[in-house]
Amino acid sequence: MHYIQKLRQLLERKTKTHLSYLVLFSLFVSIIETIGVSAIMPFINIATNFSAISTNKYYQILFHFLNFSKDINFVLTFGFILIGFYLFRGAVNVAYTYALSYFAQSLGAQLAIKTFNIYLSMPYYLYVNKNSSYLKKTISIEVNNISIVVTAVLSMTTEIFVIVFLYILMLLVSWKITLAFTAIFLMKIIFLSKTVTKKIKSIGVIRNNIGINSAEIYNKTFANFKQIKLQDPDHINDIKNDFKHLRNELCKVGTTYDTLTVFPRLFLETVGFSMVVGLLVFLIYKQQGNILYILPTLSLFVLSLYRLLPSVNRIVLGYNALMYYHKSIDVVYDEIQTAQEHLSNQPIAFNNQITLSNIYFTYQGKSKNVLTNISLNINRGEKIAFVGESGSGKSTLVDLIIGLYIPYKGNIKIDNVLLNQNNIALWRSQIGYIPQQVYLFDGTVSNNVCFGRKLNKALLKEVLKQANIYDFLKTKEGLNTLVGEGGIQLSGGQKQRIAIARALYGEPKILILDEATSALDTKTEQKIMQEIYSASKDKTLIIIAHRLSTIDGCDKVYELINGSLRLNSNRL
Known about the structure:
By secondary structure, the protein is of the alpha/beta class. It has helices spanning 2-10, 13-38, 40-48, 52-55, 57-65, 71-121, 124-127, 132-173, 175-223, 225-229, 233-287, 295-324, 326-336, 394-401, 424-428, 445-450, 457-466, 470-474, 492-505, 522-535; strands spanning 353-361, 371-379, 383-387, 409-414, 417-418, 431-434, 510-514, 540-545, 556-561, 564-567. It has 20 helices and ten strands. The longest helix has 55 residues, at 233-287.
């Protein structure tokens, strides 16, 4: 019930309404299934004994109401109606299967979209503490597992209705035989829940852990493929062996799960039909002769068991699926609770100055200040640099300026307007960011520069020219030049120029260089820095740097030492 409650909380109001309709549909299907089983007994009764038509008052009413003259016509009509009903029953089941599948798949898509949107809306400080492989696994795998669970739960609901209706029917026909069968089945189901289901739940936890570790290996391997190719053979073999171990473990878990899911059906069928045969043997022994008189009743129990056993098996399978994928419910439920930024689109203009006043900042869960009492003015069009040792707070300070972090003390104003949740979204949109590690996805230069934004060919060509890579692209396929995954088909300098063009394409007022040229050789770095200074002549430029050669064109250089800021007087 704990997991069912979590599933309910994952559903939106509209989805819950659709679910209610689907439950009603499943109730209708259950009624159809019950009628399908119960109609066999009267048909066999009259087909094997025409005299039953005249001795049964209900048959007599139908016989005269429909103006039948011969018993055989009544029996044949009953048979044809039964055939038509079974065709209708088949169509209803197909429709229900479609509706069930569509609901489950739609729910999977809905949860994937919701989770993805939550991730995009979460504060930056939360993102930096999350593992990207875990995020991808949640959206691509765990959410899909929720669809499997929902399908299983809805299937269980339908089968429970079927069992209840058929069970009532069996009680009405013979409560003694029904209760005897029930006692035996309950013992078998308890046995299955204490053994098979318990085992499936434990391997479900193992499956989840294997998924996390596998995703981590994929990320580490393919994100560092060149470095791995340069490793010694023993290290490469270690990676292969780690992956081999995980896949072998997943193979064992999958084999165990597949076997355990089949076992309940075989076990219940064996027990169920053995009981029917046992009952038949007992009756023959007791009567010491023909038992034709009990054939209709026996037929009902055989058909009921034939329909009940799959129902019981599906309930067991559904419950086992719930146990196997229960960690997916926990994972998605927890991720849905991830805090989000609630930002408004209030305009904010940057025409004069950015003002930082007495800024203090510490990372969540930490006691030590990363930045202490920072006050700073940055004028529009100014070129400034932040230098300092690694860990001194340079990147954190810039992240505060561009609105990715919020100071816990002090404030940031843009033209005397306080930067807050109301205007921070549009403030961020005025920032052009060039990172140290540039990620180019497998696609064209055009797609990588536009980065999901609307294509403006004139602007695209302009920023590529500003980044000094347009002439190179004309020797290739122009704007449609493929860069390869991670920009593998480009040099380091070319990738950096694409990153510059991407930042300029948003027509930002502020350009941020986060040690953007530190991975390049000195000559290439100097060329690119000249291009950046040229491209940002009408923009505010903020540089985070280690090399002094990258900040020659700056108006001011600030040094960060243990979270404190001071102006480098040597630059004045």
